[in-house]
Amino acid sequence: MIEYSKKQTKFKTIVLLPTGKENYVEEDGSVVTYFDKNIELTKNNYGKVMSRKAQKFAKKVEEIILKHKIDIICAENFPVGLPPAYSILLNMVAVRYKTPLVLRMHSFAASELQTELINQLMWSKISCVSKSVAGDCFRKGANIDILSTDYLGVNTNVFNNNSHVNNTAKERLQLVPENKVVLTATRIIQGRNNILKAKGLINLVQAFSKLSLRHPDLRLVIAVAKAPDRLKDEFDNAYTMLLGYIKLHNIESKTIVKTFMLDEIPEVYKASDVFVLASENETFGQVFIEAMSSGLPVIGTKVGGIPEIISDSYNGYLIPPNDVSSLAQKIAKLLNDQPTRDKFIKAGVKTVNNKFTLEKQLDNFITMLRKTA
Prior knowledge:
By secondary structure, this protein is α/β, with parallel strands linked by helices. It has helices at 2-6, 47-68, 78-81, 84-96, 112-120, 131-139, 167-172, 195-198, 201-214, 232-248, 265-270, 286-293, 324-336, 338-356, 358-372; strands at residues 13-18, 24-28, 31-36, 73-76, 101-105, 125-128, 147-149, 180-186, 218-224, 255-258, 274-277, 298-301, 317-319. Helix 2 runs parallel beside helix 4 and helix 9 (201-214) crosses helix 13 (324-336). The model has no long low-confidence stretch (mean pLDDT 93).
C-alpha cells in the first residue's frame, strides 16, 4: 500500500506507524509517514501507562487530521492488535471531526471484547481480507451493510516465476541442485495457543519425516517471521519447541529453520519446489499467492480463506487439516508428477494475474475508500 501510494499523484497518504525510538516523520513522494512511540507496545504497557499512550496516540491523530485535512481514516486490525482504548479513542476522534473511519480486519475476533469493539463502535466500513473473515464478523453480529471483502495482493514484479530453476538461490541456502525443497512460511509466536499445531508445522514435520526416508535428497525449509521485541519470549519458546519436534523425528540434517529478511523471501521461493501451509485455520493466506506468483505448486487446507485462493486439483491441493497421511501423499505427488506440477503452476500464475495482483487489489481498495469517504 505504502509503496503503491508513493508513485501516484491522485491522493496523499498519511501513515501512522509504531517505533521504539523517539517520534519522527518521513516524506517520500505522496506519502508522509509518522513514526510514533505511543503505538509501540511493550510488556510494560498496562494500566495507566497504556492509558496515557492511547491518549497521546489519539492526540496525534487529531493533529494529523487538522494538518492534512484527512478525508478518511483506515484502522488496521485495531480491535485485535491493540488495547481497547485505542479503538475507542480513535472512534471518538473520528466522530468529533466527522471523518469516515474504516476498520480493516486481518484476523478473526478471538474474544467477546474484540467482538464488541467491532460490532458496537462507529465504523463507517469494516473491510475484511477474505470472505471468511467477513463471514466471521457477520456471524458474530457485525452490520452486513458495512461489511466488505477486499483481498490482499502480491507484487508480481517481486514475486514471479521468471527463471524459476534458480540454483544460485539453492546455494544461498547451502543446498545443491539435486535437492528437492519443500517450503513453508509462517509466524510462530506461541501466545495462548499451540501455534506450531495451529499452523500445521507438527503435521508437516511428521509428513516430511516419512517422505525423507524414501527421498534422501529432499529438504524442508521453514521460513519464520521475526517477532516484535515485546513477543520475543513467546517466539523463542515456539522456536525451541519447533527444533525439538524436528529432532524428535530425526530430520535435523534435512531441515532449515531460519528467519529471513523480507527482501530475501522471493529468492527462497525460487529455491523451492513445493509450498505447503497446512494450518488449522487461516484468515487469508498471503503466502499462497506469493508462492503461486513465484511459480510454485501449493498445498493448503480446507479452512478459513484458503479455499478462496486454492481450487482443489486446479491450481493446488486442498486437504483436511491434521491429516498427515494426505499431506505426505500430496507432497510426493507434486514432487514426482511433472504434468500435475506444470498444470498447478500455470493455473496458479493465472489465478494471481486474474485476481490477486497488488495493483488490482489496491485499485479495488482505493475505490472502496473513495465510496466510503
